[in-house]
Amino acid sequence: MLTGALLILAPLFLGFAIPLANRRLMTVIHYTVETLVYFILALLGLGLGQMEGLAAQLGNMAVQVTALVAVLFLANMAGLWLFHRWQPMKVERDDSDGRPGYRRLFLAGLKPLVAVIAGLVAGYFLLPTLPMTDQVATWALMLLLFLIGLQLRNAGLSLHKLLMNRQGLGMALSVMVSSLVAGVLLIPVLGLPWHDVLALASGFGWYSLSGIVVGDALGPAWGGVAFLNDVLREIIALAIIPLLIASRPAMAIGYGGATAMDFTLPVIRSSGGLACVPVAIASGFLLSFLSPVLMGVFLSLG
């Protein structure tokens, strides 16, 4: 398991080590990443659809997802509230900016679910058991992480400045620590070894990573639980950001986890103003790096 975890982590750091200056190539990488995400999610759904006893496990999966989402939400909010009290951040809303289309954003947030459901239906009703599905998913994930490493390195972001952004760093660490505390509380509920539960709690909203990595280590059912937990974080974040960002910006920005630097960033920008953008990028960037590292380490202990 340790070797597998290191293989998953290596492409991310390899990609981050390579500087690129070709904008056309970066555009190709962007669309390739988007395609790979949906391909990997469809493979996750395929594995779920071809899992023996799927119907019997759906009830248990629903309970597990509900427990994960609820406990992580409460723990993250508590941790981010404490950070807000210690290091309050003032937000000046810029009402001259148009608001993003929230319906469009919510529909975009549902796209990952559609990809998984499509794979599940195909696996359950249409396709025979396919050999090497897990291996294809693992290699696709490694390519995805390599390309994401390239994107992070060449996004015009200074790692030094990101680490020096006190608000962003504090939000990321608050989410990380409170998620691990939540994981400890969930150990008796989920009935898994402590390191596997902590791996589940370390997705931070990166559903395409957590679903495949956890599914590869613990089976497709737990991969589905990890995916749903993280995609629901993204959808919940879209709902709470406009409500909380004026009074509790740390809670609004931080809860989005890794998505704060990409998917939820337009809502953060429109609801909280330009001052929130570097904070959100710093928090999301750091959690995007911490997530695969923590999941790889915890799963390697099994």
Automatic annotation (TrEMBL):
Molecular functions per Gene Ontology: L-lysine efflux transmembrane transporter activity
InterPro entries per the UniProt record, alphabetical: LysO
Superkingdom of source: Bacteria
TM spans (from-to): 6-21, 28-49, 61-84, 105-127, 139-157, 169-192, 204-228, 235-257, 277-301
Protein name listed in UniProt: Uncharacterized membrane protein YbjE, DUF340 family
PANTHER family: LYSINE EXPORTER LYSO
Alphabetical keyword list: Membrane, Transmembrane, Transmembrane helix
Cellular component GO terms, alphabetical: plasma membrane
